[in-house]
Records
---
Amino acid sequence: MAYALQQLINGISLGMIYGLIAVGYTMVYGIIGMINFAHGDVFMIGAFVALISLVMLVSGGIMDGPAAILIVLLVSMCVTALYGWTVERIAYRPLRGSFRLAPLISAIGMSIVLQNYMQVAQGARVKPINPVLPGGVTVLEADAFVVQFSYMQMLIIAVTLAVLAIFTWLVTRTPLGRAMRACEQDRKMASLLGIDTDRTISLTFVIGAALAAVAGTMYLLRYGVIDFYIGFLAGVKAFTAAVLGGIGSLPGAVLGGLLIGLIETFWSAYFSVQYKDVAAFSILAITLIFMPTGLLGRAEVEKV
Amino acid sequence: MAEPILEAGALTMRFGGLTAVDAVSFTAMRGDITAIIGPNGAGKTTMFNCITGFYRPTGGALRLFRDGTPVDLHRLPGHRIARAGVARTFQNIRLFPGMTALENLLVAQHVTLMAATGFGIGALLGAPGYRRAEKAAIAKARHWLEATGLVDRADDPAAALPYGQQRRLEIARAMCTDPLLLCLDEPAAGLNPRESEELSALLRSIRDGGCSLLLIEHDMGVVMRISDRVVVLDHGRKIADGTPAEVRADARVIAAYLGEGDEE
């Protein structure tokens, strides 16, 4: 029981990270119908920007603790958002009128570019950091097993929930969010109403990248090691989460992320760590067979 | 009164070898309801698509007169045409189905809202300017919901409204962009006689509110009842242009509609 509770805590905090990345996938898919394969690498960039600013702040002796984390988070969000904007501007927008596969291939290219760029710029070795927020709360002690809820996990869950709350408010309540939903449902019509669809799409990428940066920062702080390759697996997992939740659906992305996180954690805990990715992807395959639109996705209704 | 709102000069649209609109020139006057009629395939919708920026015309010019100054519509990208003051509705309704009726009307006011809020940043911070702009936007949306008799459906998703209400909502949405020229593509299609009577009244009240209208319509009852001018197209060419009474008496129009005696 205690063991399961611990896994639940671990799974949720991992799932939150996946969920944040998955939102970026699902948003871009919703608005331009494209899978942004470079999104995982944008997450990696976010982690690196966080690493660099953290090292500058902490090792430079400027500040420490929660204040440092907040600043690192903001810096990472801003810089990564700029990356997200640039990627869309140079790799996707010129191909918008082209055939469907063109931006997809361009996205794969962009993913490789970002990975190699980071490898050249920061080196290929894994980068460890010292724990920024050690310690935690003992939730339960039973059968000589101690259930720990670390401060870091609390931080991840709290930050993710806060960011998602702001994001939900942005999408449902503000003119920008309405414009995004309008572009998603009928881009041509939105432009006929005077909405600058190119700018709206750019902003979608910017917001997606900022969320990925939050995920990257949380990943760095939680696991303490990153390298230029983390974007690939995290990206594929988050993409899986988005598909599992129903691609195009924002709550679906978060739900999918949580499920993938939980499946992975519980599988590692009770079966075997080596096969955790197999488990996650098998669930995806099975879901797609029985629910092709995902858990919260809408079926495409053909217009007659 | 005799001030033009829209002027088409030798407007031409070709698709490969097919010339859908062939050097059509006409002028729509400010404060008028101008109808474009013609048999199926005459090029009416193509012309509409050129005017509203859906297509880029192959040749010719389209000028919108905004306070007397001409704006070259054929050179503007789609969202700029809307901002210049042209709004349209579609033959097959194109609402945002997943949004409520009210949201559909708010989307149409995006440009004003964004300008009032410093491109959304003010909205994030809950600035008072944004609150005011949002309130004004809702007031305008409410005004058009009332004008179209949809107030009690404001919070229903657009897709859930019955057909006639969707048509009216589309007109309300177009009006929320504060257009100078409202282009309606077969607004009476699929409406029953009572609904099309209501529609005529709505269009007349929009005209009396100062907006010029351009409409494509098959329902001759509606066209003859409300139009100030009628332009007739056939096979991409303009064959008649005048008041409803003149057009009705025109031999070529009768020939085009009834297919009698091809004079060519």
---
Amino acid sequence: MSKFLNLLVGTALVSTFAAAPAMAEKFGLGRPALPEEIAAWDLDVSPDGTGLPAGSGSVEDGEMLFSDHCAICHGDFAEGVDNWPKLAGGQGTLADKDPLKTVGSYWPYLSTVWDYVHRSMPFGNAQTLTADDTYAIVAYILYSNDLVEDDFVLSNENFLEVEMPNADGFIIDDREEAEAHFWTDTPCMENCKESVEITMRAAVLDVTPTETRAKKVQELIRKTKPEPREDAAVEEVKAEQAAVSEEAAAPAEETAALDPELVKAGEKVFKKCKACHQVGEGAKNKTGPLLNGIVGAAAGQAEKYKYSKVMKAAAEEGLVWSEEELAAFLAKPKAYMKGTKMSFAGLKSEEDIQAVIAYLKSFPQ
Amino acid sequence: MSENSSKKAPSRRQFLTGAAAAGAGAVAAGAARAAGPDPLITQVQEWATGTGDGVDATPYGLPIRFEKDVVRRNVEWLTADTISSINFTPIHALDGTITPQGCAFERHHSGAIELRKEDYRLMINGLVDTPLVFTYEDLERFPRENRIYFCECAANTGMEWAGAQLNGAQFTHGMIHNMEYSGVPLRTLLEEAGVKPEGKWVYVEGADASSNGRSIPLEKAMDDVLVAFKANGEALRKEHGYPVRLVVPGWEGNMWVKWLRRVEVLEGPVESREETSKYTDTLADGTSRKWTWVMDAKSVITSPSPQAPITHGPGPLVITGLAWSGRGAITGVDVSIDGGKNWRPARLAAPGTDKALTRFYLDFEWDGSEMLLQSRAKDSTGYVQPTKAQLREVRGENSIYHNNCIQTWWVKATGEAENVEVS
């Protein structure tokens, strides 16, 4: 560095102008990044392992962590829930019709899995996993793909020894060679083919979204809202809502005896909710609103929480989280309230639903 | 209808034969004749008597309520959740080339985050002489450029690989927008930090939970990549990466990292999730192409189309659409009304520019018969937009991304249109 500076000083007198265009103009803007800042943000991991922190995690620990943090969307066995990504299976299907692309069947580098899980997962609660947790979850994903045994422990030391089945399955973009015939320059203009037949129609498949009836009704309602007069129908709906609210609010006050076993079971179920929700003393809004006193409360009331439009609308319409409403919501959130921010697939078992409601009831404030 | 008009109005059949015999001129003259005095003209209208809104009625204006169907739309079955999802620009209802920000498609991997300018930091690190941190204000002090570019998701038209699926140009081709960006060349920022000779790639990432990191060869990073903070003259929208996004001209939208927070200079690519498990293209034999960054030349007729049927009957018809290429400028667009047997050149509204949308028109006299409408783009490298069959021939049937095939709309005698595939 000092040599370089001397050289610059030495030649500056004779060649200031000549040298200037060759060197990039500097503006002296910004400031040097501190090592702590670089360490906080520079987390990416490359295929050769550059960027991997020291640490380790076992398949066994990974199974627990996966169940807590990942199974909601990816399934207990990494098989995927609904439209969420499948992480296991599919080996040998890449040349089939509709190949199944998973970590095991498709991903060429293990570094990609570690890096992505560490920085971008769990969905809605990213950057909360420790290095060891990440090693364990990645070990479990490998196990789910039959790539390691159940006693396997993944660490920064054996990381590069894991062989990914599709490591050699990629080629660099070769369109300019493989598709060179598309550069025809003078395409055919007349009598380019003998006959033209319709071979497939979109109307047959019918998968195009249409403006739903519900949406139209909503629009109609919105349109009539600003009108100064309130007609009988609106009054009727309002009265009905008021009645429902009262009905729903009543049982919420009877929180006397809670079955401690059920509450305990609910605490376990609540692990699935924890990625996004807090409950209890000092609970705050996270990805989801805090849930203290939620059972029996009016919807959309957590202070400063940004609810979805539909939740706000439901709150305005007087939705109350009675046990019944809550149970319906928890069973299939998206079906119950289309457009809710809650990206949770839903609790499948009625017992789990009742348990988690009991658990939530144990936090009345 | 007055008696007069009912006598003079020809039946549909007479109309068609008349048109054929007398030629187009007669039809046009007939169409111009009024049925009777138009009350919109003869009667004084409410809006010509009273007054309208004062200034400031809407401090930031939205489109008038009659245009409320010109909005982005989502295809719910495509993704598990709207937070990691995509919607579509209503290209069937727009004209010109600039996409208004408010209806330009969105693609998020962890939702659209809210990031204040005051909280914004951009770090340049890795193989540089001095790792640097810039604030938003710092960025505004570098020399700026204005450039118009299209941004197309690699998956645009992806649902059509399997066959004609979605019935509307918005859904088949709406993962695209075209804006005028103001920003600083990435080159300027990299030079400010001083790239070391061993640096061959940059890795760019966003501030959101997905980070959506991508590796870009240094050559491209030093060429035309922009660190943009304005689009169409105003601040970026939250959903497009406010306050700062990367603009990677001609390359797939996934690389246009939103909420850009870090640029790292590296010797090799990171091979992140978005450039290995996603945004790669599996061929018939099971091997996959990676680093397929460039968006091939493509075009689509936006009107008439399934969401924009012909409602005015035979006679003069404006056929219009969009064309673009990630390799350069559009040099020509041909239109076919018979499913690709014969082609005629369309009129470009303005000469094509590099990696930006070009609007084309075919001013057409429609005789009311069925059409199989297609458009075919050609770019400055001599590339001609292929058919789906040509693409499948090379790539097989398992592709998801980079479907730039010729699109067919079956326009029926009623003026309605449907998405079809033809032989």
